[in-house]
Amino acid sequence: MSVDVNETLNNITSVECEQLSDITSYNFSIYDFVDDRLNDSFTYVDYIKLCVTVVIIVVALFGNFAVIISVIFNRLMRTTINLYLINLAIADVLISTFCMLVYLINNLTEPLYILGSFVCKFNAFTQILTGTYEWVNTYISNPELL
């Protein structure tokens, strides 16, 4: 005896579908939700953290992009040491865009983690990648330092 899937799907009426999607019958009162922090507005300390972090990120991005652009467009600046500085500037851009923003958002919404599992894994990957990137560039440029 075989079951016809199309026939079974056609037998489901729209009323049954509406009843399945109705969540008012579920009891969510047994769960402890942290909603006090979500309703709170930022304090002056949070605003100071936000302003200082944004200023640091903007200055870091501006300075590192200035280093990258000046070395790329000026032929006389293309030495081994300056190429190493470009690599450090790229690593610093990655840290200032990904790691500092994630830290700021986590700090402002401290009891909750609102960024999801992908950002959690990507942030750890970015930190490890930039650390490895800087170590490899240091070793390639001057192996006697290690």
Automatic annotation (TrEMBL):
Pfam families (UniProt xref): 7tm_1
Transmembrane spans: 47-73, 85-105
The G-protein coupled receptors family 1 profile domain, residue ranges: 63-122
GO-annotated molecular function: G protein-coupled receptor activity
Localization per Swiss-Prot or TrEMBL: Membrane
Record membrane topology: Multi-pass membrane protein
Transmembrane helix listed as a keyword: yes
Keywords of this entry: G-protein coupled receptor, Membrane, Receptor, Transducer, Transmembrane, Transmembrane helix
Cellular component terms (Gene Ontology): plasma membrane
PANTHER family xref list: G-PROTEIN COUPLED RECEPTOR (PTHR24243), PYROKININ-1 RECEPTOR (PTHR24243:SF208)
Family statement: Belongs to the G-protein coupled receptor 1 family.
Protein name as catalogued: Neuropeptide FF receptor 2-like protein
Organism: Dinothrombium tinctorium
